[in-house]
Every structure is written in structure tokens, then in C-alpha cells.
Amino acid sequence: MQLRQTAGLAVPLVMASVLLAACSSSSSSPSTGSTATSGATSSSSAAAGLKTGLKVFVIPKNLGNNYFTTADSADSGGAIAALQALGETGTETSGTAATPASQIPAIQAAISKGANALIVSATDPTALCPTLNAAMKRGITVVTYDSDAPGCRNVFINQASTAQIGTSEVDVLAKELNQTGDIAVVSAASSATNQNAWIGYMKQQLTKYPKMKLVSVVYGNDDPTTSTQVTQGLLQRYPNLKGIISPTTVGIAAAAAVLDTAKYRGKIALTGLGTPNSLKKYVSDGTIKEFVLWKPNDLGYLAGYAAVLAASGKINGSQGQSFTAGKLGSFTVGADKTVLLGPPFVFTSSNISQFNF
Amino acid sequence: MSTLVSQSERPSPEAAAGTGAHKLTERVFRIRESGIIVVLVLFVAVTASIQPRFLNITNIQFILVNTTVFALLALGETMVVISRNYDLSVGSVLGLSAYLSASLFGGHPGLPIPLAFLAGLGIGLGCGLLNGIMVAAGQVPSLVVTLATLYIFRGIDILIVGGKEVVANSLPSAFLDIPKATVLGIPVIAIVVAVVIAIGAYYLRSFRSGRDLYAMGSNPDAARLAGIPVGRRVFVAFTVSGAIAGVAGVLWAAQYGTIDSTAGTGYELQVISAVVVGGVAIFGGSGSPVGAALGALLLSTISSALYVLGISPFWNQAIWGLLLLLAITLDRFIAVRLTAALRVRGARHE
Amino acid sequence: MSDRLRAWLGPLLRWETGLALVVVIIGIVGASLSSQFFTSNNIFNLGLSYGEIAIMTLPMTLIVISGEIDLSVASILGMSSALLGYLWARGWPMLGIFGFVAVVGLAAGAVNGLLVTRLGLPSLAVTIGTLAVYRGIATILLGPNTVANFPATYTNLGVNAFPFTGNDLTYSAAIFIVLAIVFGVVLHATPFGRSVYAMGASVEAAQFAGIRVKRIKTILFMTSGLVCALAGVLFTFRLNTAVQNNGLGLELAVVAIVLLGGVSIFGGKGTIVGVVLGVLAFAGIQNALFLTNFNQEAAGIVTGALLLLSVFGRNAASFSSRLREWLSAGRRGRGSDHPAGVTPP
Predict the structure, then answer these.
(1) Of A167, A341, B164, B220, which sees the most CB atoms within 10 A?
(2) Which of the pair, C31 or B95, is modelled with greater confidence?
(3) Sorting pLDDT into bands at 50, 70 and 90, what band is B123?
(4) Cβ distance A123 to A103 under 8 Å?
(5) Residue-level pLDDT at B57
(6) What residues of chain C lie within 8 A of the CB of B315, using their CB?
(7) Bridging pattern class, strands A322-324 and A330-332
(8) Partner residue facing A130 (CB), from C42, C238, C295
(9) Residue B271 structural domain
């Protein structure tokens, strides 16, 4: 009896030491940049009327995601690089499950920690709104990037025009297929708003190519196993399939792995949205000829600038406002408080080696 | 914990005799597996009649290759479940092993491929060892321990990997070609995995240390009193399960080519489903890795069929769940009749 | 009287005392590392983020004590959420929807219960299957669509505090407290509760004692279904979103909290007090990690470590002796359970 009670009480003592040891070694992970930059830069942004010393939190859909790490971190020239250049504090935080239930506590914690601005890639277009609206009511600037929560933010940084992403993918395939043939789409989650929006524009663009037909849209849920299986299913269901578009980095990498055999390579064209590093092999061996993306680090960088400008009162999302985002040049706010990074970038075998993300 | 059956059938006098029990058991194991084979064949036949392309050689190759990782995981899980334990950490071990072993190629371009597999085996072995020590020496429920290591191993994986990923470009072509090699149309890895599973089944059935696991699952107290070194057996079962998950991780990396910190997430529930569908009793004491591998094959086949038939993807998950429940129910009826006979056999084993 | 009190308090408080101290330590450490920890705003946020999970742990506690498990809880939450969205989009009146969702929750639990008790299927396997079926139904109902136009009267649940209590308590936290009291009373002070313990310890003995095991287990599963449906409604209103993947993956957290609370996975042991403390510990740890800039990736490691402590803390006494026994080459067997307090020779 005594031994068990002692054991029971020993637990919290062990716990306490574990916690204290863990917390004391927390410091900052490589992606947090908490030191302000040199006086010269701070004074230049102060001269431009921008606030310095702002606490900004960058909240991607999830941590441990290569795309977001590139978009956010200082090393890759992403959001935190921009924030540091402007004399602000940038911290990346989020959950690990890419769901609202996982992301919301991170947003709330950021608010509790005194955030002046939030830069968020929304895991769901509506589920974050109560939290984001509450933040804005407290005077916190909310900027969304990559994935929007319409109506619940001050500014949205869109990587490329939604319409252009959809149409460019179809155009790439049309070029490879000589505008003839059945094609299919391997998407992410069926409820992903940006996926559905892009697919909508793809369908529109296809009307320009009467000899091409979209035979199926399948959902890989951004899971490699599911994406592989749905691609394999397509190959059996549609023996005449000539092309596949996969507008999601997980989907296109999985589809490429399936098609990277003598039987399919070059016979079924593959394109979509992907990161250069993950697709270098498939471009070099011909499974993919061209694919599309934007530069995630530029996206993050622009979001960083926009957040500081909005927090300093320089922009408020009204259509027509223009501003300069450091090395990226000047931008104009479009409809629905959205700023476009630029046209999608087409990667091919001739330019892919220049990129490392 | 309630026992598997509340009533027991008295076996016939002939079956009670030693050789009779042995023959009955062999028939029993065969019946169990043939049950799953029948379901599999029926399912394939129905699907192929609607969509003949389901059975073309490429699709069969796809299904077999997709099954290999899960069949391996099912082998390790079977050993553990037979002894009335659970290993929920297999998905996290797979993910950790997949990333770490595949990332070796990036840093050491000339690395011989078997070394990568060895590395995966080692990583899995280490994780399994931890599980094994905690369960065996701590006398704590394995469900809780492996739920905890599911979190811990995944957390370590995320800490190590961060936002990085291993990309196909950094892996040697020979490595990525492993899942694609075929012999007479059958994928080589499917043959290899089938052989491994056969070896595992043979070991469990014919070696004392294997049969001890069954005894421990049927009646842990009796097993202890009979002198079976329960702690050591459990330790070995978890270590082997971990090692197998480690190797499966390397195979996973070869199949997908792109590995980040999410590899293997959620696999534990799928593996347990395969094991249960394959006739391994969830409370231990009976079942075979062959059945579990067939269960994994059946689940892969169902997945493929749903996609090939073009059933609205929104129905997939519900249908999958229903088929799972069906398989569990079916197996339950077989189990009720077999458990009593197996008990007789186990008691007669000296 | 004091003997009875001691007899009642002694076994009750062993793990729970340790856990309570853990919660206190988390509070102290959290508060010292972040001035935000004990603010009313933070506590409110915690209630928002963990309220539904906390509510789902209560029926799960009874189910695990009875010797079963229910992994379909998050899927029932998701299915109720999808149903709520589906019916609202078709113009049903909200009160009618509540009634319907409640019935469906009960039915979902009944299916679990019947498969386990009537067909004798193991609950671990059954609820893995129903986890998929119910999530599948949610996907069939909503497909790729999202319903996000719920009236403010209801979505204010996720924004406003529970009336009359200042700014700290969310509606879900208030509901959790009420339900915890109800479940606590039922479990610890009624014959029904005692039956649950009995069947967890030994199904046969309980049956011989005249306890209607099958009926009670079915009731427990149905209660879980109803409570998870309630959690689904709260979740949907808090996020003002009904989408097919609401609540995806939460079942592991619910099970982890119940185990953390000292409920034995073998059945027959555990208390509501322990589970409430488990909720506080779980939420507190995750919150402390976020507030202190600690690497959030490590949150999983801390949860896992806590779980390990929850089983080892209780077995610390026997651990070292078992390690010795196991390391030695001896084939002597030992009985599997020692009477409390007797250390092996």
C-alpha cells in the first residue's frame, strides 16, 4: 500500500522534472526568428511609415510540410525573411494534422501571446472564421495566403489567379496531347475549395478543346497510398486515357511514381502542381514534360510584407490600393481584398535544375 | 477481459485423441484460410464480371505490390496479437524507418541497397525493442504502451524530419525499380513477401517459441504456470514486429519515392483490420500470418475494385467499413467452432 | 466511519492523487513560463478547443471500465455534423434537426452495442469498422460540400461565454461539467455503475450475479452515440462549418485521455475524477507547449510520455522485480496478478 502510494506520488515529481528540463531547452526552433535585424534596415522601414517590432505569427496548414517550410522560413526567403527584413518578429506555428481542430489552438495561442498580425493558410474556408473574426475584432491584422478563408481576413495573398491555375494546366496538357484525348484529374480532398475552384476552371478551358474530354475526377486526399490507388484505378477504368492533371503536390508525385514505367511513360501525359525537387526525377526521365507551380517562398515573402503594411495601416484591402513588397516589386490589391503574386510558373526540363525547393 | 467464447463445444472422442486433434487442427487452419480465399475469389469474380479490365495483368501487379507493405506489417502484428497483445506503433515505426533509411542515399550516393534495408531493419528493431522491454518487463497493457509509442515515435519522426522530405531524385533508380521488377508477370517483391510470410507461419506453427505465443494468447495464466517464459516471448514478438515494420518502411520508400514526416500515418488501424479480417482472433490464441496476409490482400483488392468500378468516391469509405464488419462477422462464426478444438490441441501439446 | 472513509479514499485516490499533482505542476510551470496561461481568455480558448473531446471522454470511460472500447466516437461526431448540415441546407427547422440527430446518434451506438453483445464481436474490431461506416455516411451526406450558414443564435455557442459565469466558461465546458457530475454519480453511486465495474472485472461473475451484461453494454454504447452526436452539434456550431471531415482523427485523443485518467484498459477500474483530471492534464500540456514556443511537434511525444507514465507509475513497484525476473534465464512462472501490496519475493 505504502509503496504504491509513493509510486503514485513519484510520478508527478518525475513529470515535473521532465517538463522543466524540456521547457528549459525549448528556445527557438530554426524556423523562428526572434531577433530584429540591424538598425539600418529597421530605420528604412520606419522611414517608410511601417511599424517595427510587431509580433507576427505565420500559421501554415500544418508543420512538417515541405511546401510550407519553404514558404515560411527565413532561410528560403519566405515570410519570416520578409518580416525580419522589416524589423518584426516572425514565428511559425501550427498543429500537425492539417485540420481546423489542429490549427485553431495554434491561432488562439498566437492571439494570447500578443500577436499583432497573423499570416494563415486556412485548413478550411469557413471553420476558422469564428476564430479569425475574433482576432480582427481585437485589432489583429489577419492575412491569409495559399488557402483562403473568404470574408474573415484583411487581405488574401493568392499565389496565382485561380482561373489561370486551372487554365494553364489544361493548356499544358493540350499542347502535349495535340489537343486530342481523354484526360482525368487526380485531386486532393473532395471538399478542398481551391481544388474544386481550379477544376471548375479546367472544365471551362476544356470547352476550347473539343477533342479533349475530362472522363473522371478522383480524390487522393493528399495521401500517397490513396493517390496511388486512385491513379491505378483510372488506368484500368479508362484504357484510352491520354493525360492526367494532378493539382496537388502529393498527388502528382504519387501519380508520377505509378506512371514511371516503360508501359506508361510518355504514353500518358502527366502534369499538375508540384514542387521541383519532388519531380526532378520524373522530369529527367520523361514521365512529366512540364508542370506548374509558383514560388512558395515569394508567396510567403509577399504575405509577410502585406501583413506589416496592413498592420501599419498602409493598406486595408480596398481594391486599387498599390504597394511595394521589397525585392518582389509592386502589387495592386484586386477584388475581394486579394493580391495576386503573379502568373503561375511553368517548370520544364530546361529550367528545373535552377530551383531547390 | 472477456473470453472469446462463453460456451464451448465438446469435441468428439476421436478428435480428443492426440493424432486426431492434430489432423483436426490442420484441417481447421486450412478451413480458416480457405474461407478468406473463397471470399477473395468471389469478390474478384463479381468485380471482374462487371469490369473485366480489373483482372488484367497490370492491375493484378498493382494490387500485389500495394499489398506487400501491409502484408509484412500484418505478419508482425499477427505474432503480437496471437499472444493477446497489440502493436499500435507500426505506422510510426514505418514512417521513421522509411525516412531515415531513404535519406541515407542522399548523403551517401553509392550506398548499396541492401544496406538501406539493413538500416530500416535496425531502426525498426530498436523501436520494437523498446516496446518489448516495456510490455514484457513492465507488465503493462500493450495497447497503452504502443499507443504511447505511436505518439512518441511519430513525434521523434516529426522532430527529425521537420519540413524536409526525401525526393525520388535522391534515390538510386535500382532502388525505385524494386517494386517494378517482375518474374513471369508476378512482382518479385510479392514473391519475396509471400516467402517471408510462409516462413513466419511455419515458425509460429512448428517451433516451440512460436506455439508458446498461441498458448499465451489462449490462456495467459495457464501458460505462465506451464513454465512458458512469457516475458521473453513477448519481448521477442514485439522486437520482431518492430523489425518487420522497419523493413516495410524501406519497401514503402521504394514504392512511393517521396517521403516526409507523414509516411505511415493511420496504418495501425488498417493493419489491425487486415489481421482481424484474416481470421486472427483479436483476443489472441488463434490465427495465422497467412490468413492475415490474405486479409491484407482482400482489403487491397476491395480498394482497387472500388476505384476500378468507378463507384462514386464518396461511397468508398462506407462500403469499406461495411465489408470490414461483414468479414469480422463471418470470421466470428468460424472462430466459435474452432476455438474449442484449438484449446484441446493446445492442452495436449507437451 | 473513518475506516470506511479510509477504505473508500485509499484505493480511489492513488493514481488520481498523482494525476492531480501533475495537473497542478502543469499549471505552475505553465503560468511561470507564460503570463498568458491563467488568463480568462486562455481558459476560454481551452474550453473551446477541447470541450467536445472532453465531453466524448465521459461515456468512453464507462465503456472502457465495462471491458469494451469505442473507436467510432469521432466518426459519430462527424456523421452528426454532416447530418446537421445536410438537413439545415434542406430547410429543416433546427429543433427538428436536433431531435433527428439525437435519434441517429442513439442508433449508431445501438449498432455498435448490438454487434458487440448479440453477435459477440470484439468491440475493438467492430468499432474500427463502424469508424469507417459512419465517416462514410458523413461523406455520402455532404460529398464535397460545406454548409456554413448556421444562424448566429447557435454559432454564438462558440463565441460567447456561458451566461452568469463571467468570461471563462464556454458552453461546451459547462456542458462537460454537468455531464461529468451526472456520469460521476451514475458510475460511483448507483447500482448501474457498480454493475459496470463488475462486468469489467469479470463478465461471467457479473452474469452469475444477475447483472444483465448485454443490455447494459448496449446502453453504454447508445449513450456514447448520443453524447458524441451532441459533441458533433457543438463542434459544428463552434466552427460554423459542417463538412465531411469534421472531427477526423479525434478518437485517439479521447482514448489517450481516458487511459491517462487511470482507467484500466482491461476493464473494472477507473474513475470519472481521474478522467476529468486527464482532460485537464492533456489540454494543459498542449496549451502550455503552444504558449511557450516549445516545438509543437513535440506535443505528441509529451502525450505519449504521459501515457507511459500513467501505466508505469502504477506499476513502478513491480517493474524492477519483473525486469530482474525476465533478465534471468529462469523458466519459473509467476502468477499474473499479485494481491495489492504484496511484493514478490
Answers:
(1) A341
(2) B95
(3) very high
(4) yes
(5) 92
(6) 136, 139-140
(7) antiparallel
(8) C238
(9) 13-342
Higher confidence at residue B288 or residue C163?
Answer: B288
| B154 in C contact zone (CB under 8 Å) | yes
Q: Rounded to an integer, what distance in angstroms lies between the CA atom of residue A78 and that of residue A91?
A: 12
Chain A positions with Cβ closer than 8 Å to B:
30-31, 63-66, 68-70, 73, 96, 190, 216, 218-219, 224-225, 228-230, 232-237, 239, 250, 253-254, 256-257, 260-261, 263, 277-278, 280-282, 284
Q: How far is CA A52 from CA A141, C96, C122, in A?
A: 14, 53, 61
Distance to chain C for A248, nearest Cα, Å:
17
pLDDT at B339: 63
N residues, chain B: 350
Asked if residue C97 lies in contact with residue C236, where contact means CB atoms within 8 angstroms, the answer is no
| B160 touches C: beta carbon within 8 Å | no
Task: Output C341 or B255, whichever has higher pLDDT.
Answer: B255
Give me the residues of chain A with pLDDT under 50, please.
1-11, 13-43, 46-47
Provide the number of structural domains found in chain C.
Answer: 1
Give pLDDT, residue A355.
Answer: 87
Note the pLDDT of residue B333.
Answer: 75
Task: Indicate the average pLDDT of chain B.
Answer: 87
Residue of chain C nearest A15, judged by CA positions = C22
Other beta carbons within 10 angstroms of residue C91's beta carbon come to 6
Continuous segment of H or E residues that includes residue C91? none
Pair type for strands A322-324 and A290-293: unpaired
Residue B258, domain member (yes or no):
yes
For residue B143, count other CB atoms closer than 10 A to its CB: 20
- At residue A45, the pLDDT reads 52
Asked, for residue C43, whether it belongs to a domain, the answer is no
Q: What single DSSP character describes residue A185?
A: E
Which pLDDT score, from 0 to 100, does residue C328 have? 65
* CATH H superfamily, domain A162-293: Response regulator (3.40.50.2300)
Owning domain of residue C132: 51-278
- The arithmetic mean of pLDDT across residues C46-71, rounded, is 95
Rounded to 10 degrees, what is the CA torsion of B6, B12, B13, B19?
Answer: -90
Is A66–B164 a contact, with Cβ atoms under 8 angstroms apart? yes
Average pLDDT over all residues of chain C:
86
Q: What CATH number is attached to the domain comprising B214?
A: 1.10.3470
pLDDT in tens, C218-263: 999 999 999 999 999 999 999 999 999 899 889 988 999 999 998 9
User: Does residue A271 sit in helix, strand or coil?
Assistant: strand
Please indicate whether the domains covering A31-159+296-342 and A162-293 agree at the CATH topology level: yes
CB contact under 8 A, A94 and C239: no
pLDDT, average across residues B32-37: 76
Query: What pLDDT shows up at residue B327?
Result: 78
Neighbours of C184 (CB within 10 A): 18
User: Which of B62, B261, B314 is opposite residue A232, by nearest beta carbon?
Assistant: B62
Contact A64 B53 (CB under 8 A): no
Nearest to C296 among A19, A95, A196 (CB): A95
Considering the domain boundaries, does residue C93 fall inside one? Answer: yes
Cα dist. C307→B100, B141, C12, C311 in Å?
Answer: 26, 11, 19, 7
Give C23's contacts (C-beta < 8 A, 6+ positions apart). Answer: C277, C280, C281, C284
Domain count, chain B: 1
Predicted pLDDT at B346: 66
CATH superfamily to which A31-159+296-342 belongs: Response regulator (3.40.50.2300)
- The answer to whether position B4 is within a domain reads no
Q: What gap in Å lies between CA C190 and CA C208, rounded to an integer?
A: 19
* DSSP-assigned letters across all residues of A34-103: -S---HHHHHHHHHTT---S-EEEEE-S-SS-HHHHHHH-TTTT-HHHHHHHTT-EEEE---SS-SHHHH
DSSP-based three-state secondary structure for B17 = coil
pLDDT of B316: 81
